[in-house]
Amino acid sequence: MADVKCRKCNENMMKRGIIQSGNSKYDLYKCNECGAEEMKAIGVNPKYHR
User: Fewer CB within 10 A of the end CB, N or C, for the chain?
Assistant: First the structure.
């Protein structure tokens, strides 16, 4: 998996966890330098698509 860069300070972000919203899943990332947070879509939950 490629490193996620912060849009504010261009430093690497650390993965903080996973959130599920509806049928979509997102990775949560947080920057250690400036504290910015970002969500990246990682896919759909297969149990909604049978």
Answer: C
DSSP string, 6-44: PTTT--BEEEEEEEEETTEEEEEEEETTT--EEEEEEEE
* Predicted pLDDT at 34: 94
Instruction: Write down the pTM of the prediction.
Output: 0.73
For residues 47 and 18, what is the distance between their CA atoms, to the nearest angstrom?
A: 17
| Contacts of residue 23, Cβ cutoff 8 Å, sequence gap at least 6 | 44, 45, 48, 49
Residues forming beta bridges with residue 15, ordered by sequence position: 29
